[in-house]
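Intended use. Records like the one below are meant for learning the mapping from a protein sequence to its folded structure. Do not use them to infer anything beyond what is encoded.
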Amino acid sequence: MHRARIPTACPRVTVLQVRIVLNTRSDTAGAQASIVGLASRLREAGVDATLNDWDGYERYDVAIFLGYDHELEAARRANPSIRVGLSDPKQSRQEWIDAARTADFLLVSSVEQREAFLRLNRNIFVLYMFPLIGARERVHAATEPLLVGYHGNRVHLESMRGGLQRALEELGRRRPTEFVAVYDVAGKGQASTACLPDSNVVQTRHVQWSPEALTEELSRVDIGVVPNLLPLRGVRGALRRTALREPWLAYEPFDHLLRFKASSNPNRLYPFARLGVPVVADLTPSFAQFVLDGVSGLLAHSPRGWLEALERLASSPALRTSLAAELRSRIDAAAGRQAPDLVAFLAEAPRDRPFMIAGEPSAEDDLRDLSAYGAPSNLVGRERLRARLRALRR
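Structure written out for the chain above:
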C-alpha cells in the first residue's frame, strides 16, 4: 500500500497542502463529475489540484483516475511514494476488478456502491459526484399545464412502466400535465412509448441532454421525479419464492421487494436542488439520505404513492418552494464538506486488505454469472437466457 506524503497529525487547515493530480481522457458525464468537477471543487477549497498532467507524477502526492481509464502502475513507477486512487470503479471486467483491488483507495458515488466494493478494497470514500450547476432562486406559483421533469438515462426512464407511468396518467386526468424528459435521445434512442404516460392524457417532450438543456429545461419544471428502482417481473410470486421457511419471520404479501443497481447514487437530485425544483424520489438508500419525506422532498414507490406525492405538490406552490429550498440546503451542505473530508480521508492510515467472510461470493463469482443478466437481441439468445434463468431459480 502506497502512502501519500500527507501530514497525519496536523489540524485540518494544514492537510490542504496535499498535491493531487486528476487525469481522464473521457468526456462522459461521469468523468465530468468525478474527475473534472472534483478538480474544480478541490481548487475552490484551497487544495493544490491539477487536471490532466500525465507526465509529472513525481510532483504529486495523490493521483486519481477513472476506474476504467487509468495508469496506476505508470504513476507508481514514476513516483513510488504516490498514492493512487480510482473514481467511479467498475466490476464488469476482470481488469477493472483487479484495478479496484490494487488501487490505494476508491471514490464511489453512494453507500450502495460502497457496499458493492468493500469485498475488493476497504479504503473507500463516498464522493457525491454532483455536476457543476449554478443555483437559481425559485418561488413557485400555480401554473397550467403542470410541468413534471425527468433527467437521467434511458434505463430509469423506461423503468417508470407500471408505477410512475400510471401515476402520471392519473395526474393528467385530474389536471393538465406535461412530462419533460431530458436524456441522451440521440445516443441511446427515444424511450419506448410503452413505458411513458399515454400521450392522449399526458404529452411527453423528449429533450436531448446537454449541460445547457439540462439547466434551461429543468429550471422551468414544477416538480422533478427521480425513478431509480429496477422493475421486477411477478413481484407477488417473487415474494413467495424468496421467503424462507421460518414462520417467525412473519413474511406477508404486503412486504416491499426492491431492486436497485449497485451504482445507484443521489447525483440526479442535484440539478433539481440547485434549480429550486422539489422532487419525488424512489425508495433507494442514497435518495433517502437527502430527501427527508415531507421536509426536503417526498418519497414514493407504488403507483398510489407516486400519485399522492405528485398531487400534493401540484396542489401547493408554497410546499413546492419550501421543500425545494430545504433540499438545496441539505445538498449544498454535503457538497461543501466533500473536499475537506476527502483530504482528511487521504491523510488517514490505509486500512488492511478486505475482510474475508466464509460463504460470501467473490467478484469473480459474480463476473461468471454476468452473461445470464444480458439482453440478447435475437430470439434464440433470449430463449437461452430464459432457460438459464429458470435453471438458476431452481
